[in-house]
Design a protein that fits this description.
single chain; 264 residues; alpha+beta; Structural Genomics Hypothetical 15.5 Kd Protein In mrcA-pckA Intergenic Region, Chain A; Pseudouridine synthase; 2 domains; 9-stranded mixed beta sheet; 5-stranded mixed beta sheet
Amino acid sequence: MKKINYPLKNSPKPSLYPSHPDRKQGNQKEPHHGLARLLSKAGLCSRTVAAAWIRAGRVLVNEQQVLDPEARFSPRHAEITVDGRPLEQPVRQVLMLHKPRGMVSTRADEKGRPTVYDLLPTEPWLAPVGRLDQASSGLLLFSNDPAWAQQLLDPQQHLAKTYHVQIRPPLAPEILQHMARHSVLDNRPCLPMLIHELRCGGKTQWLEFILEEGRNRQIRRLLQEVDAEVLRLIRISIGHLTLGDLASGQWRWLQPDEEALLQG
């Protein structure tokens, strides 16, 4: 077995390793990706874990050991093995979690805050499908299929997400109507959204937001602009998939037919 660790000084690269990620094959350009990214996109592990496997010599490409996680290959022409086993697309698994408030949606946190992964099984490898900020709670999805997750998050899908938000003080109907139709963030108009009152308890008000886009902290930022304080923010559905009676901090696997509910 030939061991290769790029870059090598004064040594030409064999044709297996393209000199440029968009090197032409015939008359067409063929995309090439870093090896760690290929492992991650296959749903086998995170890119960080993939890089560690590669540096440890556990990954072969076309029967040659590669120790550089950024070495680039064409997915169609790279036969990848990990610990001697061919890289195969695993069966897609999707998990839904009722994220509690106070947890961050990352695998590890540099500030030592609790993360959603403290609640999840250690196997298989899962990545969050979208995010909820630390102060928010509700429905959060995870999957071992990054390509499926990316398609689900594509803004062109116009996948509706529903949130229940408690604010203080209550807002007048005309303010809510203007926010729903004429909101602007970062000098760019927001897509129209549905906003209506669920109930009002004097000093506080519960609103329902239905959004077809997911800008960073969108609801919180819009309410901040009208001087409303967000007391609670709960995502209750994605597409037609609802949180239901899943208790805070609990999770379950989605059944295959439930994936059909995740449509715009």
